[in-house]
Amino acid sequence: EKKIEFAGPEWFDAVRHAASEAKRLGLELAIFSSAGWSETGGPWVKPEQAMKKLVWSETTAWGPRRFADKLPQPPSSNGSFQNLDAGGRGPQRDPTFYGDSAVVAFRTPAFETDMMSLSPRITTSDANADTAPLFDGNWNSAATILAPAGGGAAWLQIEFAEPFCARAITLGTGRGIPVGRVLAGDDSDHLETLVTLPGAQLYRQGRIRTFSLRGTPARIYRIEMTAEPLGPGPTMSQQPTKPAAQYSLTEVRLHGGARVHRWEEKAGFSHLFEYETVPTPDVPADVAIAQSDVIDLTSKMAPDGALEWDVPAGKWTILRMGYSLTGAKNRPAPPSGSGYEADKLSPRHMEAYYHGYFDPLAQALGPLFGGSLQYVMMDSWEAGYQNWTDDMIAQFQSRRGYDPRPCLPILTGRVVGSAELSDRFLWDFRRTLADMWADCHYGVMANLLAKHGVGIYAEAAGVSLEIPEDSLLNKSKVAIPMGEFWVRALHPELMYYQDIRGAASASHAYGKTLVAAESFTGGGYETPSTLKNVADYWFAQGVNRLVLHTSAHQPLDTKPGNAMVGTHIHRNITWAEQAGPFMTYLARNSFMLQQGLFVADLAYLLNEGAPSTMPIWGAGLTPKPPEGYDFDYVNADVLLNRMSVDSQGRLTLPDGMSYRVLVLPQTDKMRPELLRKIRDLVAGGGAVVGPRPTRSPSLAGFPDSDRQVQTLAAELWGDLDGVSRTIRCFGKGRVVWGLPLEEVLASLSIAKDFEYGRGLDADLAWIHRRTQDIDIYYVANLTDAAQSVRARFRVAGREAEIWHPDTGDVEPASYRIEENRTVVPLDLSPRESAFVVFRRAASSPSRTLPQRHSITLATIDG
Fold it and tell me: Domain range holding 698?
């Protein structure tokens, strides 16, 4: 059959027909944000409007003399870093783009030495390896080193005639940093380990990585490689990887000058889960670039790169800094819908993207756009990294309150001022990126669509943490925050759990009703019982709208049909005609869980840096919430701009959500404005649990910001040390440091919201929502065995009822009110779920109803 081309006349006719049918049938219609599931790109995006990265060139100048020459243009290659080409080593076919941002010069520290100028001897364990590509300055050329046939480490050795003091090493690779180590010494038989590879890394690791070294002179530096780079699976499972048959490196650079530890990840060329564990070690003052020795020469360079400058005495390095494209395209998309991903840090370019896509659609649909076409769907972010845009310097200065130009060399790995100052600037840089992704991408799209009555479903940005985002801030911009869960996990289960809890938290904290989820991904031809069992758990984590993945339209009667990577849910599956009860069950659960407000006692404050996200790594949430209590995450934006404290000491939000305890992140860094707000909440009666901050993570206002943090912390924490002194009353509230959360909650007389007498194999999931006068508990038996338990609910004065979502039946329940809680016996069949609803005033403190007992009369085999 003839295929319909995206955005052609027939395509618009088909979309108009779908919108008309949706109107006729009273259905909600949504369309993806691009011709592919990720993200916002298409053929109408011009190169200058596409996603960008920072690039630079370096020129050496000597003074005192006049410099009059053209500065080399930085790389214009499409790719993730400098001249690294997107998509491999072949010729680039897509158009490229380059624009200038700034020119800065700095006095070159005396220890900066080009290692190759010292003519080191290069050897490897593979006698046939050509190592020349490792030192050619080209991130695309590579050397391949075969692993020894008899086993053991493959290695590359750099040997100098005289000891060389390397303060950092940069490794470039094709697929990621291999498992191994970097060693050094004066004798090849007595080398000491300087770095263990690959070090801390993300779910998907970057291809270029710099490690700071301790700066001890050595004649020999050796890179040993013992196993292949860690892919996503081994990274998250932390299982060992097997030795590789060969190892590929693109560049190896030993730096005599200081470099920021892991600066590529800190500057947004890739990123890490967290940065507490990768601080840059202190360096001597004469190794760092003095702040006063950074000069802005931007106004002195002509458009063609010509620079005239009277160079002060000494050796100087000139950085011409600009931006080129990452080369990212929307995917998967048909050729007619494929193009560059739009610049997600630019409101102007995102608005151009919007008009290129949605203006023709709105014209074709007329009143149906914003009528039956009610939503745009944004899937998980799979557009790769972006760390620059046209007006990045102005955006940074506006958002952080200081001029970044004196710090720009830090974005190329240099240490300016000190190691701490450089890390602080990079903290500010990542935080700026996170704010801009939320405002300029999700915010701009949401605001433009809202003018037509169209909302957004969005994972914003998704389960895999592809960018150093503020997850809740992203989701705050859209109408319906989303997470995702799978039938059979591709990622570690912790990632789905945190993703869903983050979506739920964003909805709760920003006054939204719906928590949607991309549901049942990674399945196949599944039974309704399998899908029900999976969904029951996620309902208890806050999901109240399922977005089926996938219900592909089946216009033909050919069976059974196909739905790509998702579970097949459409009219041609074998149980389609019997799907009514299952779909009704999901609908009843969703409806009930959309009532009222979520009930939680704990609000966990996420780290205010970037990423500011739910912990999908390590042990996950720390400290863990005690059983029987529920929680939300909140970010710095919610704390600063939405949270207050009421007369009862509850931490409240404008839309009615409230919490009893604020749990701080496990860090000693906090900006003074955030700590000041926490001080005010405690003074008003709030309870806060967490360690004492000692300094700000930001360069803004430094060093006075640190003094403010220390003053506020002393006022609030007083003499607490988290060991012998753990509780301090302040104003009407209290601060706790070093006690288990269960003990803190008990000291505040906060009873468990839900608990049950559990057998060895009992496993019930639950969630609590409350309307103005009704308490609704959802309880699901996650086991294949019947469970008869006594459950206790933090409700008093009301009768208990059992509402059955599988049948729609409502029945009274036995109960007994004990002090401020109610005990209800629950008899749940294998994998059964039910709602325990308290809506009518109790006429007596207890009620006992006849119990139903089942007896097996006979078993029929066959």
Answer: 598-747
